């Protein structure tokens, strides 16, 4: 097959991107040493990175933050100063600007443009528009008795025990993936989604963004996605993920979905050779009810997002901003830890904050050989391992077409991509059982009710193996039935000034505070990335709730979960808030503690 000049240009760029930005998904690799996440300042669009497009976040108050004309003029200014081609393309859902560089930009030319943006006091961050890839591994065959991952006592997720309470009705899960290929065992649970792939070389469906998230296939020839990368047939990856979450159940055929009463909104971001951060950022924003320029409002807002995808490197400020926005709108974001058998600190978006990062276990309950690990993993779930038997993989809905869609079928896959929808399905069950749950409460409850891994996990697999029945039982009927203490006295937060504190006096409690103390915070602020927030216990111990970050969104209105079990409940608790940068001010409107 001949490659078009446009696609060839993109593939050359993709092949040259550093290994820190793009990774393949091998089933095995040398075990990496445990490493702490690198500070953000060391990982943002560093010199030497090659990229064709950049994502630029402007500070609140800058004209470029809201005006496309101003952002375009700024791109022209950067082009004049560097002698490089820099063109404004569009506004992302988070408000960031996507700018495109010229044909075949060198690492040096990219570094020059990045340096110009970084030197601009109106710019909050500049990051490369990276290419992400599905994180699954292998396929094969069929039925419920073969779904060991749901019910086996050794390493299953104890799903049937949750179905007496809920099946996920009333909840929509957005599967941000390759889209959806029609399957009769899933069709009744599919609602409207969207195709966010803007680049026709990636979309291969003949057009850019539109309301049709159908998966046309993501096959590619040898070397088409980078030198040395072997040919691959179409994965139908998004359909496999969706079936694990919500395949129709008790219908006399096929497989059972974990939250089979829930609905799936397919949101297409991955095509030939992967998908760009910019499209994924807009997909996260739209799926969670945010606004994306040029895209109709979402009528099927998701309370759970499943992202079984990823690439290398640190979490970018652009992606983190989109995730924070989704969580602030009440949507849980569940992400695959990745399949490189390395520390998850080098796998994005699993290393982002405010996500539930999922590692994969095999049929004996040990960490799967390919699964990433580390302190940033939140929970483990069945992902399968097919080295000794295909039947030890995860069975779900698929299609038999090697390139374009053919007949529907079922197949076994393995990967953290398969583990992630187990946890997304559990989150949907929880939200259905108790609609008042916040993303923080959902994550906390999943961790608190996990069971110890039946096998082993070198490197760290989070709180253990997720347990659906125990978790749903723990949250049904409400988790906020304890006593609430609050402060409604507004306190101004000075710009780049000293920390302010707001006290709450807790009385009438016995013993220590709970291991899941709920801290509700309502702050108005025009650039919440400036804020550092701590909970201060009566004895003066401080618990960090939020660190400063490059996050240009407004306000903090969320609930944090703190393990305060070592603190006496009675006494004066304080919320400490500090603005650490210039130009923006705010107010602590209220906060509360729920025991």
From TrEMBL:
The active site is at 177 (charge relay system), 237 (charge relay system), 417 (charge relay system). The keyword Amino-acid biosynthesis does not apply. The keyword Secreted applies. It holds the Pfam family P_proprotein. Keywords: Hydrolase, Protease, Secreted, Serine protease, Signal, Zymogen. InterPro entries: Galactose-bd-like_sf, P_dom, Peptidase_S8/S53_dom, Peptidase_S8/S53_dom_sf, Peptidase_S8_His-AS, Peptidase_S8_Ser-AS, Peptidase_S8_subtilisin-like, Peptidase_S8_subtilisin-rel. Gene3D superfamilies: Galactose-binding domain-like, Peptidase S8/S53 domain. GO terms for biological process: proteolysis. Residues 475-595 form the P/Homo B domain. Residues 75-86 have a biased composition (Basic and acidic residues). Residues 66-86 are annotated as: Disordered. Residues 1-29 form the signal peptide. It is found in: Secreted. It comes from the Bacteria. GO terms for cellular component: extracellular region. One of its GO terms (molecular function) is serine-type endopeptidase activity. Belongs to the peptidase S8 family. This is Extracellular protease.
